[in-house]
């Protein structure tokens, strides 16, 4: 067993739903913390006042531009983390915080919220509101294998992370990705790629997508711009890196989560 990696959870402007999703791994979370990762920073789970150096930073929530502390913290996170992961729709795309216009009861001056990719460089996106526990778990395992594994394990980790890194390379700018149902319309349906599987509708946390006559119909007024539908669509960013190694990737994740073979 190689040395464990260091992981931190950095909370920006969000609802903490992504942290709850991480905790929903239950025994799997204990397996990760026991065998693969030391949690060195987390407002609710780690006794650390300042952001330390770490291998992987899981950043939840968007950045409030009027909050100097938040802007400084996200920049500090980038400086001290080898890998920065945008955890959830708010961190990756802004999500529902994009609709804020100020006037909140406790901080009325806070009116501008942007994805963390608008302020710093991000390595991996995990879209969704909130991402499922298994996906967060898998990224943590793959981050460990990428940094501490054998050459074969590193190759599989790179294959698994490739699509999520591709999402991060696109960034949050509307010129490349609107992170909403518009992506499904312009990049999948209008290109003749939609096969009517309904995955986008099933992944939408606010039921803004319905299937009508075998095709998705997007209610833009309900869309919260979390990016879940585009990330879940099998025709959105088809990756041979993942598909060709699917069984091997599942096997290595299962082996990591069951180190005793149970």
Write the layout of secondary structure elements.
Elements: E1 5-11, H1 17-23, H2 27-35, E2 37-41, E3 54-60, E4 63-64, H3 68-80, E5 81-87, H4 89-93, E6 113-114, E7 124-126, H5 133-148, H6 151-170, H7 181-189, H8 199-203, E8 209-212, E9 215-218, H9 228-232, H10 240-243, H11 246-257
Parallel strand pairs: 1-2, 1-3, 3-5, 5-7
Antiparallel strand pairs: 4-6, 8-9
What attributes does this structure have?
262 residues, 2 domains, iron-sulfur cluster binding, alpha/beta, globular, Coenzyme F420 hydrogenase subunit gamma, NiFe_Hase_small_N_sf, five-stranded parallel sheet, single chain, EC 1.12.98.1, Alpha-Beta Plaits, 9 strands, two-stranded antiparallel sheet, Rossmann fold
Summarize the structure.
The protein is an alpha/beta fold. The chain contains 11 helices and 9 strands. A hairpin with a 2-residue loop joins strand 8 (209-212) and strand 9.
């Amino acid at each position: 067993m190689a040395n464990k990696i260091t992981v931190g959870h950095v909370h920006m402007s969000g609802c903490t739903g992504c942290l709850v999703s991480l905790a929903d791994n239950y025994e799997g979370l204990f397996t990760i913390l026991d065998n693969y990762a030391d949690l060195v920073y987390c407002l609710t789970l780690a006794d650390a006042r300042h952001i330390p150096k770490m291998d992987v930073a899981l950043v939840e929530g968007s950045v409030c531009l009027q909050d100097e502390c938040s802007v400084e913290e996200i920049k500090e996170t980038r400086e001290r983390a080898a890998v920065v992961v945008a955890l959830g729709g708010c961190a990756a795309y802004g999500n529902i915080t994009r609709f804020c216009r100020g006037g909140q009861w406790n901080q009325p001056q806070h009116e501008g919220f942007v994805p963390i990719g608008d302020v710093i460089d991000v390595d991996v996106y995990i879209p969704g509101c909130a991402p499922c526990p298994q996906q967060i778990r898998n990224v943590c395992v793959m981050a460990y294998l990428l940094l501490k594994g054998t050459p074969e394990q590193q190759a599989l980790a790179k294959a698994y992370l490739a699509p999520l890194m591709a999402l991060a390379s696109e960034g949050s700018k509307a010129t490349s990705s609107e992170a909403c149902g518009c992506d499904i319309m312009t990049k999948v349906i209008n290109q003749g790629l939609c096969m009517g599987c309904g995955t986008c509708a099933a992944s939408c946390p606010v039921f803004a997508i319905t299937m009508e006559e075998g095709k998705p119909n997007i209610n833009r007024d309900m869309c919260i711009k979390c990016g879940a539908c585009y990330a879940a669509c099998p025709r959105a960013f088809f990756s041979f890196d993942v598909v060709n190694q699917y069984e091997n990737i599942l096997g290595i994740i299962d082996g990591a989560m069951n180190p005793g073979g149970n």
